[in-house]
Automatic annotation (TrEMBL):
Membrane-related topology note: Multi-pass membrane protein
Domain Heme-copper oxidase subunit III family profile, chain residue ranges per copy: 29-210
Organism: Massilia oculi
Protein name: Cytochrome bo(3) ubiquinol oxidase subunit 3
A Pfam family recorded for this sequence: COX3
Subunit structure: Heterooctamer of two A chains, two B chains, two C chains and two D chains.
One CC-aspect GO term: plasma membrane
Length: 212
């Protein structure tokens, strides 16, 4: 009966020296990564909704300023460079982790975190500058959609940095265990996902926004 129950629940059965059956539950191989991919797909739906909203409201200026009047492309290009380079440095961290080099893994995570913080600082400056100019989210449908889309992405980057800092200390305490490597892989997927979303934001919102 124990063997039948174990086969149903997905556990493994072992017989100890006393003759009793012991059911050992195990973590499904690649189960975490599969679950995380499902989460990313749900996140794609959130951003797809925000992009659709911006597509509808992107020209609803209500007599207020337009993207061409507000957006500073050199500053946004610099911010884009911060995030894209951070994706590269995270790749270096993963290479170091695969080589079991803990020191280099943590070093590249620090560089990635600094670049992520730089990205957030520029974005906060941009938001403050727009609000100071009277172009806050309540000014028009265009600005409401803009702040919702770009702000949601910035919130994701904030969560990513908190996760990165947490993992940095976990690596320092426990090292490159299989569990920590799995967490690092999930964070890598999340970080590259945010970079991909930002490329669409930069193109769809900023570049197309400065067109007449």
């Amino acid at each position: 009966m124990s063997e039948i129950n174990a086969s149903v629940t997905g556990g493994s059965v072992a017989d100890d020296v006393t003759g009793r059956y012991i059911v050992r539950e195990h973590h499904p191989e690649q189960g975490t990564l599969l679950g995380f991919w499902l989460y990313l797909m749900s996140d794609c739906l959130i951003f797809a909704s925000l992009f659709a909203t911006y597509a509808v409201q992107g020209r609803a200026y209500a007599g207020g300023p337009t993207g061409a009047e507000l957006f500073e492309l050199p500053l946004i290009a610099l911010n884009t460079a911060f995030l894209l380079v951070s994706s590269l440095t995270f790749g270096f961290a993963m290479i170091a982790a695969q080589a079991k080099n803990l020191a280099k893994t943590r070093m590249w995570l620090v560089v990635t975190g600094i670049l992520g913080l730089a990205f957030l600082c520029v974005e906060i400056y941009e938001f403050q500058h727009l609000i100071h100019m009277g172009a806050g989210p309540q000014r028009s449908g265009f600005l409401t959609a803009f702040f919702a889309l770009v702000g949601t992405h910035g919130l994701h980057v904030t969560f990513g940095i908190v996760w990165l800092v947490t993992l940095f200390f976990q690596l320092g305490k426990h090292g490159l265990t299989p569990e920590n490597f799995r967490r690092l892989s999930c964070l890598s997927l999340f970080w590259h996902f945010l970079d991909l979303i930002w490329i669409f934001v930069f193109t769809f919102v900023y570049l197309m926004g400065v067109l007449p």
